[in-house]
Amino acid sequence: MMRRRGRPLVRAAAATAVVAGTAGAVSHHQQQKYANQAAEQQAQQEAAQAVSAPPVAEEPAAAAPEIDMAQLQQLADLHTAGVLTDEEFAASKAKLLGLG
């Protein structure tokens, strides 16, 4: 019977270490690649959302003129009393409401 030289257990352990090290390096490379792809996709989505999102209105809305209810009531009373005609009442009311 022929006997092999060297230590077969050591050779097997060394081969296993080389295979495991290579697999670890490849796995690490793939994880970095996928992480970079995910970050790039997220950046593209954020950029697309920023472009397609409607701009937020920074300007304050025009304040509606305050209506003086006392003056409006006085106009209504004058109209009811017959002091103001329909046309005069409508014109005065529009002016008071800021419509004319």
Which terms would index this structure?
100 residues, 70% helix, mainly alpha, rod-shaped
Compose a concise summary of this entry.
The protein has 3 helices and no strands. The chain has helices at residues 8-52, 69-81, 86-97.
How would you portray this structure in words?
It is a single chain. The protein is mainly alpha-helical. 70% of the residues lie in helices and 0% in strands. The protein is built from 3 helices and no strands. The protein has helices at residues 8-52, 69-81, 86-97. Helix 2 (69-81) runs antiparallel to helix 3 (86-97). It is rod-shaped and about 135 Å long.
Poorly predicted regions? none
Which structural class do the helices and strands define? Answer: mainly alpha
Q: Biggest sheet, open or closed, and with what strands and sense?
A: none
Name the overall outline.
Answer: rod-shaped
> Can you write the helix and strand succession as a string?
HHH
List how many beta strands DSSP finds. Answer: 0
Give the percentage of residues in beta strands.
Answer: under 5%
Overall pLDDT level: 79
- Our Rg estimate from Cα atoms comes to 43 Å
**SS element count, helices:** 3
Fraction of residues in helices? Answer: over 70%
Distance between the termini: 118 Å
